[in-house]
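This section describes the prediction task in plain terms. A model, or a person checking by hand, is given the sequence of a single protein chain and must write out its three-dimensional structure as a string of tokens. No templates, partner chains or ligands are provided. The sample shown here is typical of the held-out split.
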Amino acid sequence: MIDLFLEAEIDVGYVKAIKTMQGATGVFLLIWLSGGYAQTSAIVAEPPAASRYASSNEKSLKAENRRLQKAVVRRLSLTRGLSASNILVVARNGVITLGGSVPAGDQFDLAVATAKSVEGVNEVRNDLTVRPEGF
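The expected answer:
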């Protein structure tokens, strides 16, 4: 009886450790996929008109990336037969990168096909892995 109790404690500890590692891996993957860059100390002066133009163009590009990302996430979450809860979506200039995991191999192809079907998507990069639920 005591052995069963000890095994249960070990299993719970093991599961917590695995979940913690998954969370850390997910954060790392999100940062890596988003292409986080370190700030540099170099300052480059631009003419005021050019900086305003670049700033507004950059803002519209970011807004378009966010719109496309939300559209793909929405389409993935509404797709029957697809468990999209562990799929990360990054959008950059019409290129969608899918990261994270799906529970079965057939969902792997379904996620890619669904992302490609969204208007404005030019390319889909697939960084998904197959990981059965509970792992």
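For orientation: The CA atoms of residues 75 and 114 lie 7 Å apart.
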